[in-house]
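Today's session is about reading a structure prediction critically. Students often jump straight to the picture, but the first step is always the sequence itself: look for stretches that repeat, for charged clusters, for runs of hydrophobic residues. Only then move on to the predicted structure, which in these notes is written as discrete structure tokens rather than atom positions. Here is the chain we will use throughout the hour.
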Amino acid sequence: MAKNTARVRISRNIYLVLAFIFLSCVAVQIFLAGMAIFITPAHWMNHIFFIHLFGFNLPVLMLLFALAGAMPRWAYWQLFGIFFLVFLMYFTANITGSLPWAGAMHPVIAVLLFLLSWKIVRKSITFIRKNNQ
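Below is the predicted structure for this chain, in token form.
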């Protein structure tokens, strides 16, 4: 295990903050989709625009801070899961013309992405608390 230096502690805390921001962004993204469905389809543009702000950007930053913070192996596997689910989200959003049933998987994957993001936040909080004592 890496020495608990200031760089490691700060990197782990930044990782946690980014994980929480990612979780919040997923929740906002689901909310925007709901607004597009139940209020007005004009909100689809917000939904489409917003994903480009955080979709792959935040997980890449999380990966960099996980490396700098010498996070355990589970953090990298969970980030791999995030990357995979975000890829599936893009795939299911863009393949519906050819495979309409794949579009139906889009909200299911969104829920999985939210749950995995929640798990990352919870596990990171526990890990950081345990290692800061």
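Discussion point for the tutorial: The radius of gyration is 16 Å.
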